[in-house]
Design goal:
mainly alpha
């Protein structure tokens, strides 16, 4: 399997894929233009591609490592990176990293990853919450507040009616007092006539 991971094999694999794709395209061009070699060329290209795709399916994909995210500047050929080992770096003014420094840096990254993991867990829990009945509950609350506003408006109208009723009762009470006074005078006057 080490041969499959070698640079030479990877180069050869990409070369054959490119040649096969070119043969398919030339064959398609020949078929479109009705050239006599078009059928042969497209057949050779498609067989080459079929064999390659079968082989690529059997060996499986390679794992991708994105080291330039961990070590910025790694993809720059001329960058000066400090190695993660103790000893002379070969670069003037650059202090080598010791095990404790590397451990502290990795420990900080680990704590950040744990925090991110907790945050992702919280987001997943929020995603799994069933919000299907929330719309109905909000609609019911809207109806409740609408009815409450109507009741408050009716209550405000009732307060006005109550004040008018109170004013009318005060006037009626005054009229009754006046009527009682007149009735008392009439009774007094009639009582004096019956005694005479």
């Amino acid at each position: 399997m080490s041969f499959l991971k070698s640079k030479g094999f990877k180069y050869f694999k990409n070369l054959i894929i490119g040649v096969g794709a070119a043969a398919v395209m030339l064959g398609a061009l020949g078929k479109i233009n009705s050239a006599p070699w078009g059928g042969f060329m497209i057949t050779v290209g498609l067989i080459t591609e079929a064999v390659l795709f079968f082989f690529l399916g059997v060996i499986g994909p390679e794992k991708d490592y994105y080291w330039e995210k961990l070590y910025p500047g790694l993809d720059n050929y001329n960058s000066n990176l400090t190695p993660l080992t103790a000893g002379d770096t070969g670069v003037a003014g650059v202090r080598p990293l010791d095990g404790a420094t590397v451990e502290n840096q990795l420990g900080g990254m680990l704590s950040e990853l744990q925090t991110m993991s907790k945050s992702m867990g919280s987001l997943k829990a929020l995603q799994e919450v069933d919000f299907s009945e929330t719309g109905q509950q909000i609609k019911a609350m809207g109806n409740f507040y609408g009815r409450l506003n109507e009741a408050m408006e009716n209550l405000a109208g009732t307060i006005d009616d109550t004040q008018q009723y109170k004013q009318q009762m005060v006037e009626l009470n005054q009229n009754l007092n006046s009527l009682n006074g007149v009735y008392g005078n009439v009774l007094t006057a009639m009582g004096g006539k019956t005694n005479a």
